[in-house]
Amino acid sequence: MQLTPFHLAIQVRDIAEARDFYGRKMGFAEGRSSDQWVDWNFFGHQLVTHLNPAIGRDGQVPAIANRVDGHGVPVPHFGVVLPFDEWQAFAERARGFVEEFVIEPYIRFAGQPGEQGTMFFMDPSGNALEFKGFRDIEGELFAT
Asked: What is the rounded radius of gyration, in angstroms, for the C-alpha atoms of the chain?
């Protein structure tokens, strides 16, 4: 089956803040937009940030945490899977714009099936993002 781009719409508390984070800091190209939403090229996928004024300027989207490999993984979260070298490069770049990681870049399940680089951080509205890197995506992504 051919992998196709996903479409994901998330809520944000401020469109200008989302433009700064996703556009300027993360470097994603902006597509169509209005004063209520912005389309982003999220590693070839369509991410749309929609304004939700009910969040409030100082508020954040609610989340819980589940334990995985000794860390509290925020739920819900989203992100992409990258080849390991691209993940490493993105992790280094992220250190330049992420003020605080939820989970610092590290190797999860080291030496086990499904070994992966991972990191978690929040956007300014509290949406949790995870970025994974595999040395062998096809062989390891769904390893048990």
From this structure: 16
Residues 6+ apart with CB under 8 A from 111: none
Q: Coil, strand, or helix at residue 29?
A: coil
Provide, rounded to the nearest whole percent, the portion of the chain with pLDDT above 70: 100
The whole-chain average pLDDT of the chain stands at 95
Residue 58, number of CB atoms within 10 A of its CB: 6
The 8-class DSSP code of residue 25 comes to I
pLDDT at 10: 97
106: alpha, beta or left, given left = phi > 0 and alpha = psi -120 to 50?
beta
Residue 63 is classified by DSSP as: -
Could you give the domains of the chain? 7-55 (3.10.180.10), 64-140 (3.10.180.10)
